[in-house]
């Protein structure tokens, strides 16, 4: 799918990046462009010495982006550096340039979870779901200096989680208003419902690292002699410092049984009533992002209609939970 903001690079462009930033001599014997991402350009290169790397390049500066998307490559590089240091399985980071918007990482050997599902038994799938929960919990062991997105501007950075999260909500609602994106409720009502939860948000006192985008397409798995296992997580550009419970938003996109396995791995217990309520807030935030990005990505009509329908349905459900 062609995405309006994704950089258009050819093989020569990405080979030049690798020659400049990887120790040489470097000789290339293969190339593949990944076209399923919605933001960065991503190209795989096979080197004659056996190395396989992926080059990611951020959209050009000055393009129309959502407010939270500024400095996303810097965010992803920080997520990789700190996640790897905490033992999170992620591709090795060979080079990262936050200012230039470039990173080079190892290419993984496995496949994404959606591609593996047809070959997995139900028991395999539940075991992998639980392992995803266990491994993703390592992100939350990393503590940030303050809450919010790790951006140069400091926008959304705050000493309390409520102040930071409410700034995130303000930003995405401003994006939606600016682009005229459709909402199931007036933006003022949505903001008021979330603001009313300020005290609940401030039960979170430690700014933990949250990947916040661990949907199945960002989880690579591989099959070994003892069965399927998680190989690594990718795409940390939505990472932030906040409530670890926010990680469960994308961990719970599967069936109820799969969600229970992931949450058990992540927490090792049932969520409290307060955590369930905070989770509804974070689902609302992600769905607002999905609504807003339809107007800046350049999706085709079918993708836009599907994403708006799905995100709006979730918004209606979770706003009702807050009122209930």
Automatic annotation (TrEMBL):
Ranges of residues in domain Aminoglycoside phosphotransferase: 33-274
Transmembrane segments: none
InterPro entries, per the entry: AGP_Transferase (IPR051678), Aminoglycoside_PTrfase (IPR002575), Kinase-like_dom_sf (IPR011009)
PANTHER family referenced in this protein's UniProt entry, alphabetically: AMINOGLYCOSIDE PHOSPHOTRANSFERASE DOMAIN-CONTAINING PROTEIN, AMINOGLYCOSIDE PHOSPHOTRANSFERASE-RELATED-RELATED
Name of the featured protein: Phosphotransferase family protein
Species: Glycomyces rhizosphaerae
């Amino acid at each position: 799918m062609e995405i309006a903001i994704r950089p258009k690079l050819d093989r020569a462009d990405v080979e030049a990046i690798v020659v400049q930033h990887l120790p040489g001599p470097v000789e290339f014997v293969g190339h593949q462009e990944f076209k399923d991402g919605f933001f960065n350009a991503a190209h795989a290169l096979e080197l004659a010495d056996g190395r396989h790397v992926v080059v990611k390049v951020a959209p050009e500066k000055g393009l129309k982006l959502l407010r939270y998307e500024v400095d996303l490559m810097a965010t992803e590089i920080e997520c990789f550096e700190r996640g790897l240091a905490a033992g999170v399985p992620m591709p090795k980071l060979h080079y990262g340039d936050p200012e230039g918007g470039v990173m080079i990482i190892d290419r993984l050997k496995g496949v994404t979870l959606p591609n593996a599902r047809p070959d997995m038994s139900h028991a395999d799938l539940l075991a992998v779901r639980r392992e995803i929960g266990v491994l993703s919990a390592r992100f939350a062991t990393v503590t940030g200096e303050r809450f919010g997105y790790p951006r140069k501007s400091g926008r959304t950075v705050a000493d309390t989680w409520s102040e930071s999260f409410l700034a995130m909500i303000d930003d995405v609602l401003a994006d939606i208003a600016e682009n005229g994106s459709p909402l199931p409720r007036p933006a003022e009502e949505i903001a008021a419902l979330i603001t009313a939860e300020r005290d609940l948000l401030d039960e979170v006192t430690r700014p933990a690292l949250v990947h916040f985008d661990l949907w199945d397409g960002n989880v690579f798995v591989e099959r070994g002699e003892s069965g399927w296992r998680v190989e690594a997580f990718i795409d940390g550009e939505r990472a932030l410092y906040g409530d670890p419970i926010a990680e469960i938003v994308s961990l719970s996109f599967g069936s109820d049984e799969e969600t229970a396995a992931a949450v058990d791995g992540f927490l090792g217990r049932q969520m409290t009533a307060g955590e369930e309520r905070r989770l509804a807030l974070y689902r609302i935030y992600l769905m607002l992002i999905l609504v807003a990005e339809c107007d800046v990505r350049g999706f085709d009509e079918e993708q836009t209609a599907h994403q708006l329908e799905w995100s709006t349905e979730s918004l209606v459900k979770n706003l009702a939970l807050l009122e209930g």
